[in-house]
Amino acid sequence: MKQGLGEIERRLFAYVQMRGQTTLRTGELTRPLRLTGPQERNLLSRLARAGWIVRVRRGLYLVPHTLPLGGKWSADEALVLAAFMQDVDGRYQICGPNAFNRYGFDAQMPARVYVYNNRISGERTIGSVQLTLIKVADTRLGGTEEVQSPDGVTTVYSSRVRTLVDAVYDWARFNGLPRGYRWIRRELDAKRVSAAELVALSLRYGDLGTIRRMGALLEREGIAGSLLRKLERTLPPSTGLIPWIPIVPKRGTVNRRWGVVWNERP
Asked: Within the chain, which residues score under 50 in pLDDT?
């Protein structure tokens, strides 16, 4: 136990561990530990500065199940996200670079956690966890899978198929193209995803650019015409063209069916 941990600190940890709590809010300790409001606030601030607990926001803290042997404690991303999103009464899913790494599309482990959610945008740091929060409409949340941590905390990730669709849809934010096209081809060839799943999620979570690019890609891959027609029926008549690779000049042959300029070999 860390030198200098006093009687009141030991009582705090005994209290939360007896109750199986992972969060503490100001006001919870005044009665059981017989503290005044200022004493409680000073205690929680002191423990947070020392690294024994993690401050989520003013008045809300994460606490460990057991006292860390090394002194300082780092809450993992599962616990941080669960507490943060519960506090704002929001839904979320981990997306982008973290999902790319999870499914083996990209070997790079991102330093930040990218999170679609329906409450807040911006960057936050909670303990050692750096969050990039991306607010989206409720209708853009979904296509997920749940992962349970060893501590029993559930974390929500975008599914494999949803992640591929988002590589095309959110290409600018996640640097998703052109590498997303390679991932989709590879996953189709390995039969880890199906063209029908890609079409369904493109229609549900994509935009017109996503649908046009996905249609052009699947047509190139020889996917059944019935699936392509599902995409095609959602497109309004247009003479406008979009580039296959958005970051490359829009020069090349044209696929008129999808309104896509082949500005780089697909």
From this structure: 1-3
